[in-house]
Structure formats: C-alpha cells, structure tokens
Fold VOC family protein.
Amino acid sequence: MNFASVRIITDGVDRLVEFYEKVLGVSAERPAPVFAEFVMPSCTLAIGHSQTVQLFGAGSAVAADNRTVILEFHVHNVDAEYERLKPFVVEWVKEPTTMPWGNRAVLFRDPDGNLINLFTPVTEDAIKRFSGRL
C-alpha cells in the first residue's frame, strides 16, 4: 500500500487553492471546479468542495472543522519561508523555533483554520532521521 494524498474538504476551494499555491510555490491541477490537486514528489495535497463528500456516501466530513491534523512540509530554510509568507499568512501559531526533536519549525493556519507546519531538520540526529526520506 502506498500513501497517495491528503484531502482538505472546504466550502472555499478557490480561496484555499490560491493560498496553497502561494505557500507551496506549485500550481494546482484543476480537473473539476470542485476539486484541485497539488502533485508533489512526496505526496499529493487535494482540496475538495464539501459537495464532493456526498459522492463518497460519507456525510461525516465537515468543511473547516479539523482540529486534530497538522499538514507538514519539509523545507530547505524555515526562517526564509517565514519571511516569504509573512505578507499573506493571517494566523501564525508559532514563529520559527527549534523543537526538542531537532527540527526548526514554524506553524500557521490556512484560511479554513487547518494547521500547517513547515520544518527543517537542523540537528545531526534530525538530519540523519530525514536523510533518504524526502
């Protein structure tokens, strides 16, 4: 089994697509107005309108109601990304900080309130842990 993607359910597909295009520096693929994908080497981030949940017969996904998942992206330089994103990120949760497990990280919310963590391994152990993974 291969992990394929993470999907965010939203009522504001265009708004989230615009936000993630700025954060990720990648253009979204839009096979339908209610769906978008950011295809990256390590995984795909999908964004689907709340209407798409009905197609799966699953009524349990609620747009902008997530308080348990953090989307994490490995970046080359957390501090540089923080400076780049300052003009359009509205809610910062944690400014760049070196975490006890050896990653330098910054945490913020997307327009729907989903948490995003950008991180860079900075200690020898963290760098070793991520070598070959990404």
In short: The first helix runs from residue 13 to 24.
